[in-house]
Amino acid sequence: MSDSASIMPEHPPVTDWVNDFDHTDPTWTENPFPIWEELRAASPVVHTERFLGCYMPTTYQAVKEIAYDTEHFSSRRVIVRDIRPEITARAPPITSDPPEHKPAKQLLLPPFTPDAMKKLEPRVRAICNELIDEFIADGKCDAAARYTKHVPVRAIAHMLGIPEKDGDLFIKWIHGILELGIKDDNALMEAVREMTGYFAAHLEQRKQNPTDDLISTLMKARDKDGNPLADEHVLGSLRLLLIAGIDTTWSAIGSSLWHLAKTPADRERLVKEPELMPLAVEELLRAYSPVTMAREVMKETTVSGCPVKSGNMVLLSFPAANRDPAMFPDADKVVIDRKENRHAAFGLGIHRCVGSNLARMEMTVAIEEWLKRIPDFRLDPAGKVTWSEGTVRGPRQLPMLFGKTN
Amino acid sequence: MAGKLKVRVDQDKCQGHARCKSLAPELFDLDEFGNAHEVGDGSVPEGLEDKAYLAQSNCPEIAIEVTEE
Lengths: 406, 69
Ligand code: HEM
Hints:
The complex is a heterodimer of chains A (about 400) and B (about 70). Chain A has about 400 residues and is an alpha+beta fold.
């Protein structure tokens, strides 16, 4: 879901955040938190002329009002970018509004319940350990490249019922679609074509020999009239699950390890009190929410008293909502055992993340297994942490050293 | 002594975040789509009162009601 398409190097640097914000500015990418604070202090809704006109709600309340208001705010465009091309590629349910949204979503929900995730958990634990085996003896690693990226890729491959080693292909396609695709339309089309061809072959195989994996589950799904889904619909859903499920969770696990690397007190506490993990995972999701979405304003309205005009986009920042001190006391601190936490990292309202139970399980298991094998670690001062730009935020380079400092 | 508590999930508000089921599995259950409902008639057994309030205060959709009988 990351929007590399909006990373336009020719954007002029921002000097006035309140009236001219830009979520692709390097300052934002590096450290967005002080910017959000400034915007929130100015108004619950701010506006920029960039991106052909775009609002940003800055408070939890304003984000919630927009997420709940599907009449004035459409999901037909879920990415804020420089251009607004004709809508061709739709990806239900994420780009759907009511009434189409619900039936499209219900098809995807049953394979992602917490019970289904419990069955997958042992395999994810094994995946984490296989990855750690590959680098632990080195005493250091780039955790983003060697660990956090591969956990979601292999987990989804396992769920889909395809060889986990093919996960490397997913990484390549997603890179082609979300990053190279910005400037190189051919790279994008090529990745989509390869991906579609790959999955089409898997559909054909399963028509001969049905299996009991996620691909087969989607093939067996029936719409409300009892008809099977067209192959195109199944292929579209598979594409959405990959694009929505990989760099999001990669980012969430990465930010969590980044926090723990530089916060020994929290790390030691989790090692000593593993029962805190469920609360800790929610707090890390709140403080370092990776996913910012978008809406398009369809009709003029007001949000938290601010007028909002049609023709504009909305940068729907769940991450900024989650840092709102009116909603969360000590919003800028990671309180690893925070008890009351209605964070919106997985969205609010009808578009609640389909993969939230999967993402939570992957985060929990990836952090737990890392802490068991590598209880002491820190950022490598000789390396540099880099963050992804755009709508999914997380470390893309995360150099770590293992063991205690002496 | 406070009265007995009851929990109820508003089906129109629940979006299936599943926070309640994770924090208080004795009081909440999920359907095949992952949306929540209270277990039985929602009566909170003695000793689980804190869990009822914890689940309520973690629901992002404010879909959980806790009432005192
Ligand atoms: C920590 C990891 C993740 C985060 C933070 C996250 C966040 C989000 C958010 C904020 C939305 C709401 C979009 C909106 O309001 O427009 C969403 C939707 C969605 N997510 Fe995730 N996600 C994560 C992982 C996953 C995974 C692992 C999958 C599946 C494999 C997934 C699949 C989806 C789908 C299909 C939707 C569309 C739901 C709808 O429109 O009803 N996500 N996600």
